Amino acid sequence: MDRLDLFEILVRQHSDMLRAFIRSLAFDRELVDDVYQDTILAAWSGIDGFDKTKPIQPWLRGIARNCLFAAARKRHDAIVSDAAVVEGIERQMSAIDGREGDTLAERTATLRSCMEHLSAEEREAIDLCYRRDLPATIAATQVSVSHDAMRKRLQRARSGLLECLKRHEVLGTCT
Amino acid sequence: MHVNADRFVDALLNHELPAPLAVEDARRAAELCVVHALLGQLAADESVRAERLTDAAFARIRDDSGAGASPELARIAWSRLWVAMAAGLLLVASIGIWYRATAAHRTVQSLAEVHRAQGPRLYALSVHRQSNEGPQTLAGTVGVDGHGAWALELVTQGDEHIVLGHGQRSYWRRTAAGEVFSGSDVAVLRSWLAPLEEDIAVPSIEETLARLERDYDIAIEIDPRDGTQFCHGRKVTADPAAADDVKIRFEPAQAGGPLRIRAIHWGWNGPGTDVGIGAVKHYIQSIDAELIDEQWTPPDGWFEPAAHTANALAARALASP
Fold it and tell me: What element of type H or E holds A125?
């Protein structure tokens, strides 16, 4: 097994974390995919700069952030640019890194139980807009509600999940 | 302009490109962005998409490292080889140590075929893995039901069961105490099945439906697809009053590959119940989609009438007042 093989295994192990981080900052789904691949290429180019005494996730996120900013120079307003928000996201992701589990899904397994506490309408909204990746306008049409109503359901669902994840100290535990 | 944190995340979800935004409550916005991102990981095609993108990125890295080699480059490379080798070895050793200390899914596998007859078959699987506690051997099975549905089940030395079923995006880990956890890192588990790829090929939609109709003596009428991963239809029996709705869930379409059936949800006769049949888990839901129960079921007999009846009875029992 050579160095690249090892690097590939590490990247695959943390691919869900990396994609979630990029998704938390990018407004465009194509951009998420582009930046994800750019990050892998840039990380491999700079592998010699990786401090082996430190965890790899923050290093990958730092590279992803640089790739996002580089992409944003070409595509204005395509990413979250508020520095306080970006910093807050990195803090939350670092806190998740420290949780037990090998993958992001394992570290955030509480999300699943939190979903069960949402109302049926809110779960449906999550199912349509996230699991099935439908635009909110299409999702609204499918369940015969207005776009505003669908938007509100999603907002309530995300708020509910946030509160639940905070109660379980998955999010919001860092200052 | 300052915008509300919830509106800010709406823009993320809808892939809108707003003007540069300053948020009223940056901390809440950051938390909601993370919730949004975690939910985004649930998308039906996310794991396939991530895998494809990762494959492409590493293919490019390998192409780039193999291309453009010239005698001049070779001489330069050779002159630097010893330094590079020393640095590389150190790095590999360091990553290796760190990797061994943090890993859980580092494995090589060996597979012993125990039965290769037509119809249901069972393979013994032995996995040697490097975990935090040192080298381990996991013993388990791969069950194939004769219709392409398969399930991998492994037992760890701590008496934990790891199960991955056909069409599942998560694997399931059941502890000795009976607690159940899910994990999404299924690529490694699936790689253990590579030697069986031909044997566990999933049949076509037509083959699956034909088998269902034959097993249950029913006809299935399928509505035109609505563009989603679901398809609706009706299960028609000799007694028209007993006809039920059927919801068929498809595998996410693979590039260039045919569409396959992932799971079938029957509207069963029990009042207000819907029984889904999947490779590993059965979901029992009320008609308004409230989850009543999730049942772990033996992976074999996915389409077998006996298993179907047992689930129907369970659903009825749960639905009874």
Answer: helix A120-126
Of residues B80 and A1, more confidently modeled: A1
Handedness of CA B269, B274, B276, B282 (dihedral sign): negative
In total, the C-beta contacts within 8 angstroms joining chain A to chain B are: 211
Are the C-beta atoms of A67 and A96 separated by less than 8 Å?
Answer: no
7-66 of A, contacting B, C-beta below 8 A: 7-13, 15-16, 19-21, 23-29, 33, 36-37, 40-41, 44, 47-48, 52
Model pTM score: 0.50
The reply to whether residue B185 touches residue A91, judged by beta carbons under 8 angstroms, is no
Taking phi over 0 as left and psi of -120 to 50 as alpha, with beta for the rest, B134 belongs to: left
**Does residue B307 or residue B25 have the better pLDDT?**
B25
Is any Cβ of chain A less than 8 angstroms from the Cβ of B20?
yes
Tell me which residue in A23, A109, A159 faces B37 most closely, judged by beta carbons: A23
Q: Which of B231, B269, B271 is nearest to B247 (CA)?
A: B231
Tens-digit pLDDT profile for residues A90-108: 999 988 888 877 778 888 8
> With contact defined as beta carbons under 8 Å apart, do A164 and A158 qualify?
no
Q: How far does B216 lie from chain A, in Å, by closest CA?
A: 30
Q: Given pLDDT bands bounded at 50, 70 and 90, which one contains residue B37?
A: very high
- Which phi and psi angles does B298 have, rounded to 5°? -60, 140
What tens digit of pLDDT does each residue of B133-183 get? 666 777 777 776 545 567 778 887 778 888 777 666 677 777 787 776 667
